[in-house]
Amino acid sequence: MTILKNRLFWPSLILAILLGINMFTSQQFLMIQDGHLFGTLIDILRGSAPLILVALGMTLVIATGGIDLSVGSVMAISGAVACLLISELGDQNSVGSVLLIIGIAIGASLLLGLWNGVLVAAVGIQPIIATLILMVAGRGVAQLITEGQIINVRSEPYATLGSGFFLAVPVAFLIAAAAVVLTILLTRRTALGLLLESVGGSPTASRLAGIGARRITIMVYVVAGGLAGLAGLIYSANIRSADSISAGSLIELDAILAVVIGGTALIGGRFSVAGTVLGAILIQTLTVTVVAIDIRPEANLLFKAVVVVALCLSQSPDFRAKVFGRFKSRPAAREVAAA
Amino acid sequence: MTTMDMTPVVKGGGGPELNKRRRVYKPNTKHVPILATLLLLVIMYSAGAANYRNFDDPSVIVNLFRDNAVLLVVAVGMTFVILTGGIDLSVGAVISLTTTLTATLLQGGWPPLVVLPAVLLLGALIGAGQGAVIHFFKVEPFIATLAGLFLARGLALFINQHSIPIRDKVWTAISDYRIELPIGEDGVVTKPIAIVAVLAVLIAAAVLAWTRFGRNVYAIGGNADSALLMGLPVGRTKIAVYTISGFCAALGGVLFSINSTSGWALQGNGLELDAIAACVIGGVLLTGGSGFVWGTLLGVLVSGLIRTIINFDGGLNSAWARIIIGVLLFAFIVMQRIVTRKAK
Q1: Sign of the four-CA dihedral A196, A283, A234, A242
Q2: What is the ipTM of this complex?
Q3: Domain spans of chain B?
Q4: Is A61 helix (H, G, I), strand (E, B) or coil?
Q5: Membrane spanning segments where (chain A) (predicted)?
Q6: What is the mean pLDDT of chain B?
Q7: A285 by DSSP, 3-state: which?
Q8: How far away is chain A from the Cα of B150, in angstroms, using its nearest Cα?
Q9: Is residue A244 domain-shared with residue A326, that is, in the same domain?
Q10: In chain A, fewer beta carbons within 10 Å around the N or the C end?
Q11: pLDDT tens digit string along B160-217?
Q12: B229, B302, B322, B339: best to mutate for the A interface, most A CBs within 10 A
């Protein structure tokens, strides 16, 4: 029974079923070709890298009780900056310059995250509204950078980020995995995770307990910005171009969904990095599976919607009390809950 | 920033010496944001009229209502929700669902007089459902309506993800109908959807200003707990505002389908953000309890005027519209913070 009660049991079960379906329907689930791992499973891992990165940042932000709607726009901006600079290089294949440009693009994303963090923590605007500003304006900025065009690049080192392999594993997935491991170490092996949760639980109480709540809040938005920027680079490297309109479009919703599936409460105060990763991979697997077994792709969104509705309701204590606890709760307690 | 110079009024007004008889005109705090928006609108219009030929033609203003009719209707519904301190992210998706459903049903030969009430009812029901989840299960408004966004857009895409033409006679007749307004020398022509949008604003303003329901909306936005202790119907009002917002979104979807004589599941993508932005720029306080439909109207006109100016200029990248709206959003939110801080 304890395994059934684990919050990650149901998502894991669904993921296992989906992977099982894939194993039977696709001829190439996992195989080795030209020294690389290859097949549907690898496609899933590679394709989920941007979502894992974005959802990772989103988890930290949500843990402090906030939300970041601007991740899609940050992705678009970082991809646009990188592709614009690379397309102006004399030698697009020079590894040093590409690395420098990647650094610049991530630096820009960190700055955008800082802007969000300052608006939330220092100016005191509600997170959903503060990040809405960058969400609206950011895409405009990305369109200005690319001048409304799609910038194509022919840079092998840059493309490696999206479609390359290292030790037979996709580079994109390695980057995401490294970010996940680093985050888990930093939040669970140091006091940082505890501090994040305490800020999410009550910023005022944390501040009175001597925690730099403001600094921590700013920090999570900076991290979320940087991770979104990295995801934007992987996305644009994968298609070898900067598309300021479709890059990261609606990814904030997928990221929030991944976080919720992973068992992180949207009101803040507790979070699970492993759950988020599971959620992100689940969403990507779902997308791949729906295509693979010939269901209309539109059903994908509908299915996601049903999952979100069910998860949101199941997270609400009032819902559980009213629907499942009808016979257990005392009448007085129910009165209070109803009020 | 002239607006900041106006704000210190609160100190006198909120203090104990309320019965000062002689008063110089100083705007009430709750009117400061709306006056700032009005000033901005006037400045933008004068700048446009000074720089571009034919900008002072009355048709420019009349066309603002025509081009932004959908946004206006949706933003009016959003105003109700934001006044109670909530937020409705599902409106854009409800628009997609309505246009797709309208087009599909009309294509299937349903009579227009059945389709119209059916889709409007559906929008209202979606809104009511979200309101009920928010009230009864204490789910955060933005989470509940985000789930509603997913659901409505998923349904719309599931029905049909391609653009569906509408050939129904009633719909095309309304779409082609033109109304002559006796403004200026030659008169100005506009479409029925603009009239519907203006009517929506007038009705909403009347409801908020003169009905018990309107006062309840403000009271709940001011402080839901106090409203409850005063015996106001908090639950009923909350569900009602989301129902209104859903209805307005469905109406917006119908206007969309009339304007373009087609239905498309990707229509209305991101419109919820434009609507929220219009409310904020129009001085509706996001924490609830303060703001006017007139402000929302001004907010919609400001964002419409930005697009008009960019169209007139021709040389500007259309991406500037988004950036300028973002900057205005920022400026007005910061102004809201300053005004509310001083009020405390």
Answers
A1: negative
A2: 0.71
A3: 29-343
A4: helix
A5: 12-32, 44-63, 94-112, 118-137, 158-186, 216-235, 247-267, 273-295
A6: 83
A7: helix
A8: 5
A9: no
A10: N
A11: 878 888 888 888 888 888 888 777 667 778 888 888 999 999 999 999 999 999 999 9
A12: B322
